[in-house]
Specification:
Elements: H1 5-36, H2 63-79, E1 87-91, H3 100-119, H4 122-136, E2 141-146, E3 150-154, E4 161-165, E5 171-181, H5 182-189, H6 196-204, E6 212-221, E7 235-241, E8 252-256, E9 261-262, H7 278-281, H8 283-304, E10 308-310, E11 339-341, H9 349-366, H10 369-372, H11 384-423, E12 439-443, H12 446-453, H13 456-469, H14 482-492, H15 503-537, H16 545-554
Antiparallel strand pairs: 1-12, 2-3, 2-9, 4-5, 5-6, 6-7, 7-8, 10-11
Helix pairs in contact: 2-4, 3-11, 5-6, 8-9, 11-12
Length: 555
Amino acid sequence: MEITLEESKAIRSLFAAMDAEMQPMRKHWADLARAYLPRRYTYLETPGTPPNLARNPTILNGTGTKAARDLASGMMNGITSPSRKWFRMWPGNKPVLRDRRLKAWLAEVEDVMMFAMSQSNFYKALAVMYLDLAIFGTAAMLIYEDSETIIHAYNPALGEFRLMQDHRQRVVGIAREFYMQVRQVVDQFGEENCSTRVREAYKRGGGSWLQPVKVRHLIEPNTPPRSGMSKSFRWREWFWEADGGDREQVLRVGGFHEFPGACPRWELSGNYVYGGSPGMDALGDVLQLQQETLVKAKGLEKGVDPALLADVSLQNTKISASPSGITFVPGLARGQAGVVPVAPVNMPLGELTLDIREVENRIRDTFHNDLFRMIANLDTVRSATEIDARREEKLVLLGPVLERFENEALDPALARIFNICYRAGLIPPPPEGFEDVPITIQYTSLLATAQRASNTVATERLFGLIGNLAAVYPEVRHVPRVAELLVSYADSIGVPADGINSPEEVEKAKQEEAKAAQAAKTTEEVGVAVEGAKTLSETDVGGGMNALEALMGGG
């Protein structure tokens, strides 16, 4: 595929600048990989090296790796659990949600997107991204359209990708350098788009198909638009061979209507594009733990199998050090021969074990394991109130991370999936009259709901105070706007929007209750009047016939 010389220079120049910005992080990532995932990221030290799945040479105590995996698993289950709906579509103008047609359409959109994610590898890619984020502080996932599974996600690895951000610190570009085999390059990009070297290797066949090819990939904003590319594409991508030899030939050029990547960072420092992480914070403790574990193992080995001093007369004598073993030596009775330890081993095993346990606890605490295992790790029975208070305290620490993850990973991922499903015809058009209603996303995961639920404490305290004061100061009941507070409370604890009546519906129900109460009161009053009339008719009032008889008798 031919491009101009200026475009060729521009993409190579941008890639080189992004690579130069990433290189200072490469050594630090390699240190983290050796401490946590040595079998997975061997190529961070030697590019092009495949993962070494057979050896794990640097980890003697796996507490750090397990703590990182526990954090990743907790975030996966607490933020994007595949077993429950963790988001809902919400119109930007909330009053329009009362329309039943819009409610039904939004529910259908949610179901289609959940189906697309469950049928693809989306959740598997998310699990990898959570682990990378916990250890390295930066992760990436690319989402492409797929004819078989609707969407397909890819996880670029650390050291493979470089990021670019805008003035608002949003990731708007990603560059990759990775290796593919000759057969893979031809299958994906077409033989006609490959370099002469790759085409010749492909034609030779056999083992030549497995030769490595260094491929570079760049996604950047389409500003200004490339010649021949539609202005409707907001991003463009390039694939080219790093060692292809054909300067003006690339493997593929494409465009995207929305950014195809989800690139979260755990935390940012200044204007730097790459993030910090719990793995970085705990690295010193993890290295100390490996050293102390090694020292403890050596001490135990010396105590069980110590170095020995032997009489020279035993040099050619077979010595048995096994239990119940007997070694026969001459002159032992006269004290002329024997074997003794070089030096007594007095290792403070108890103190070392306690220190190792303390380091392990620090590592788990750094990885927020206490948040996800809080109830299981309680040594005594606690009340629900105390457990809720502990959870809210921990969520305050994780809150900024959760908000950043939603903004940098979930928002662009869901926008990408929505547009792919819409273009595939899986999502019907919105109801008539709602075509221009902005749609936002509200997250309903366990962590997101728990985070919002912490806002309900003030409401509960207010209601409790009013309940206590109402007995001596009844007017206090009129202070809160109860309906609005209850709606906000329900939203904070994750009650579905269609489970709450609108203000108009509430007012209508109140009017109907008032009418029913008035009708019941009127019926009761009529009943009392009828009963009174009946009683009156049967009552001897001393007049009528009695009066006439008295008059006649008197006459």
